[in-house]
Amino acid sequence: MKHSTSIGTGSTKLKDGKKHNISGELKKDLRRQAKLDEQQTVKSESQRKGDNQILRISNVLKIPEILRERGYEIFHQCQKQKMLTGRTSEIFAVACLFAACREDGQSKTIKDFVNSGNFNKTTFTSYYKIIVQTLEIKSKIISPVTHVSKIASKAEPPLSGIIEKHAIDII
Question: Are the C-beta atoms of residues 92 and 48 closer than 8 Å to each other?
Fold first, then answer.
């Protein structure tokens, strides 16, 4: 059953809520918006779960927004290539975020991601390897200097700034 109040792109006369005809610039805007709405695809459940997981983990690990966006891009590329079939979308999405971090040279470790996501390390690493191989993502070599302060703060007792600086000089 067709209604005359629909905002389709067909030849149906456009009417507002009071059944008055819509014309001119507003009519063009409504048709353009209707066309955009048709083109947008509804997110699948796996895409929604993956996107939510990327957002959650990036907030927990304080990953910059630009890397989060790159993680979304990688995740959506993987979906287009049907790489998620038979795999857990949440873990796969986080592996995409990790790939984005490695591509940018961020000093986040696999352990950081696995601990914040509460999932299996072997599954995570296998997903990461599949992503890197299939999409040919090149990861930057991370300098060990970036990890010195992290290691120094976890040492018992915590190492002083002088010792930390000396360790950086040695590296």
Answer: no
Residue indicated by tokens 């975020």: 97
**What are the two backbone dihedrals, phi and then psi, of residue 136, each rounded to the nearest 5 degrees?**
55, 50
Encode 44-58: b = buried (16+ Cβ within 10 Å), e = exposed.
eebbebbbebbeebb
The candidate with the shortest Cα–Cα distance to 57, out of 110, 134, 127, is 110
Give tens-digit pLDDT for 58-96.
999 999 999 999 999 999 999 999 999 899 999 999 999
Contacts of the segment 136-143: beta carbons below 8 A, 24+ positions apart:
137/74, 137/99, 137/102, 137/103, 138/103, 139/99, 139/102, 139/103, 139/105, 140/102, 140/103, 140/104, 140/105, 141/105, 142/102, 142/105, 142/106, 142/107, 143/171
pTM: 0.64
Give CA–CA dist 119/49, Å, rounded.
Answer: 15
Please give, one letter per residue, the 3-state secondary structure of 140-153.
CCCCCHHHHHHHHH
